[in-house]
Design brief:
The structure is a homodimer.
Chain A: E1 3-9, H1 13-24, H2 26-33, E2 36-43, E3 59-61, H3 64-68, E4 73-78, H4 84-95, E5 99-102, H5 105-121, E6 126-127, H6 138-145, E7 151-157, H7 160-171, H8 176-185, H9 194-197, H10 200-214, E8 224-225, H11 233-241, E9 244-255, E10 258-269, E11 281-288, E12 292-299, H12 303-323, E13 346-356, H13 361-371, E14 376-383, E15 388-395, E16 398-399, H14 400-411, E17 416-424
Parallel strand pairs in A: 1-2, 1-4, 2-3, 4-5, 5-6, 8-10, 10-17
Antiparallel strand pairs in A: 7-9, 7-11, 9-10, 11-12, 13-15, 13-16, 13-17, 14-15
Pfam families (chains A, B): Homoserine_dh (PF00742), NAD_binding_3 (PF03447)
Cofactor (chains A, B): a metal cation
InterPro entries (chains A, B): ACT-like_dom_sf (IPR045865), Asp/hSer_DH_NAD-bd (IPR005106), HDH (IPR016204), HDH_cat (IPR001342), HDH_CS (IPR019811), NAD(P)-bd_dom_sf (IPR036291)
């Protein structure tokens, strides 16, 4: 059986997981690909550090050219997790005619478009299944399994850290700060949690999902992004009283050939399949014109789940090599990129206000919404101390533009403070 | 752009859905395949009947040879739903060098092995994504997305009719008979519901899932099958008291290179992702050594979901045609078929007994279980009238052999009646 050699850039948890799976599942993999696939060389940062998976004989180097320039290596796995250096190495690898598999969502979200072009020019495969929702094979499912369908909406819990925190805040009533601390102690959150809690990580994944689901290249700036930093346990309890669970969702939807992508805390009915996704798990919910509602659930991160997706990509490269069909884009579905205007982006919203308990304040508030043609489907008023009341509104469907106009005018009203507004999905 | 003509055998809901999707999603499909794909001829039973999707110009015939023998047709879609005639037509199609896409689970469960061989001999593609879990692209996910992994267990809610009935019995307390009647009125269940309620339909799907997940050819006779006909609302309530939901699951699991496949009512913790799958929806839960727990959820049937899976298969055939790679098996993972012995098939069980309320009966019962080394993790005793008590036991893990031995000896004890036993998954 002929060999296919793999070079790995980066030897953290995912890199060593790749070495391990290729070794442990050798017989299945060689049977389905017809190749003996193994990692022969690994780029590490520190040659003196001990390796996590010592059983397999792998050459180690701290010089990237030793790996990228090795003519016996045909597949490069990039699992370093930075952006600039990874971009440089991946470009060099593709130009050297190597197929590339990467788990790097930041790289693909920011530079995917150019890398896909370079890969095609060099007749190379470029796959990145592990970049979104770790162990869930969601990208390949969208590209192949749902190929026949016209997708209308893709909603995902695509950040495990914030889902873990929200689960703790919901089920144990932990504060944001305590939930964050637990996530940090368990290694789910970085010491600087900005990328997770402000929705940036989720937004990057949504850029990738949008490209494959709708064939459109949106940039990170196009994603309207709100994280969970300002979310309180009070709001979670209010949502619960109204029959909803709050999840941080990435939502990409298409309407008349234009797409809107956002990341926002979202109220979901408790019976919605995404409501039951707990802890650090991820799930992507897809609405197709024909297939209807399908959902894909699993671990969003972790050494072996992520490595398993990387190895599935390697297997696809190997099959393509056997069939002589390398160099076709992961997805050939390309559509002119049109961004849905805020006036056409319709949704229901949860709005939380604080109002002085004075005659006329409620009327003023109602007027501001009515001026923007926003109706209410539910209202909950809770008395508070200091003559202040908390009012929670679930609106009927309205445009993002109208909602923002209403909230802007409300901010100028005395006696009314807008605490927060989140999306509601049914 | 060159054309690819499709002939459809059977023009019920799925057949007309295929015509419709190929027409409505024409531009996306031609972009990703490079072909103008259309249905040009359809086999119907009755030429005088009106067609469901009239907008597309399709020739209709009641002679199968008009379709199979048409040299301008390269892909045959079989959506007739019988076994013998479908088998004959599919064989003829493959031998005539046509690629075949079928939604026929019975055909694939019973004759898949031979058809796969004939397809390969004739350099033809044979795909059957729609045969399991309608609109969920589960087969392709197992074959490609999870290719790198060593799967350990596949558990599925793969019959929508019984899941609908169990949902009604659980949430509304309907009796089995009333739930069945509702399912029949809504068109989910046939007038003779045997295949659904006795688990036969689920068993056929598990044969297909087992082939792709573990590379093993089990026959229907190898699947230990219990349906829901004997399940009572009382049992659902007892399970609920113990924190469980009852679902009809197909379970295929591998242990030391041997596989066990069963269909059985199963108690799942309410927090298990499969517990939240309601109504006629399907879901398949996969446990992989590396990827961990993933789940795939969606509609199990229906015109457009099923047709959407058929069209995804057609798209794969088209891509293969473009690349010149037809004739490779859907899955090339083949493993020697070993059946796990009942003594090695371990699980926890729910056992429901009726016992006369007499000194010594409980001791006798406990002795019979202890003799087979079966321990109890939970016991619930409910007093009833006529000096009879209902006792429910959740056992510790035991082998299927030991459970059956214990139940056999219990049946010979006076004052003890074994009402039912179901599996418990944690």
């Amino acid at each position: 059986m002929s060999s296919l050699n793999v070079g790995v850039l980066g030897f953290g948890t995912v890199g060593s997981g790749v070495v391990r799976i290729l070794d442990e599942h050798k017989s299945k993999i060689s049977q389905i690909t017809g190749y003996d696939i193994k990692v022969t060389k690994v780029l590490v940062r520190d040659l003196t550090k001990t390796r996590r998976y010592e059983d397999v004989d792998v050459a180690v180097t701290d010089n990237a050219n030793d790996v990228i320039g090795d003519p016996s290596i045909s597949i490069i796995v990039e699992v370093m997790g930075t952006i600039d250096i990874a971009y440089d190495y991946v470009l060099k690898s593709l130009r050297a005619g190597k197929h590339v598999v990467t788990a790097n969502k930041d790289l693909i979200a920011l530079h995917g478009d150019h890398l896909i072009t370079v890969a095609r020019e060099n007749n190379c495969d470029l796959f990145y299944e592990a970049s979104v929702a770790g162990g869930i094979p969601i990208l390949r499912t969208i590209v192949n399994g749902l190929a026949s369908d016209h997708l209308k909406k893709v909603m995902g819990i695509v950040n495990g850290t914030t889902n873990f925190m929200l689960t703790k805040m919901t089920s144990e009533g932990l504060s944001y700060e305590t939930a964050l601390k637990q996530a940090q102690e368990l290694g789910f959150a970085e010491s600087d949690p900005t990328n997770d809690v402000d929705g940036i990580d989720a937004a990057r994944k949504m850029v990738i999902l949008t490209r494959l689901s709708f064939g459109m290249n949106v940039s990170l700036d196009d994603v309207s992004t709100t994280g969970i930093r300002q979310l309180t346990v009070d709001e979670i309890k209010l949502a619960d009283q109204l029959g909803y669970t709050i999840k941080l969702l990435g939502i990409a939807e298409e309407h008349n050939g234009a797409v809107d992508v956002c990341v926002t805390p979202t109220l979901l009915p408790k019976t919605h399949p995404l409501s039951g996704v707990h802890n650090e798990n991820n799930a992507v919910f897809v609405l197709g014109e024909a297939a209807g509602e399908t959902m894909y659930y699993g671990p969003g991160a972790g050494e072996l789940p992520t490595a398993s997706s990387v190895v599935s990509d390697i297997i696809t490269v190997a099959k393509n090599t056997k069939l002589g069909t390398n160099g076709n884009a992961f997805s050939s579905y390309v559509h002119e990129t049109n961004k849905l205007a805020d006036k056409d982006c319709l949704a229901k919203y949860f709005v939380r206000l604080k109002m002085t308990d004075e005659t006329g304040t409620f009327l003023k508030m109602t007027q501001r919404f009515t001026e923007q043609k926003i109706g209410f489907s539910r209202i909950l008023q809770l008395p508070e101390s200091n003559e202040q009341a908390t009012v929670v509104i679930i609106t009927h469907e309205t445009s993002r533009e109208n909602l923002h106009l209403a909230l802007e005018t409300l901010k100028n009203e005395s006696g009314i403070v807008v605490n927060s507004h989140y999306r509601v999905e049914d």
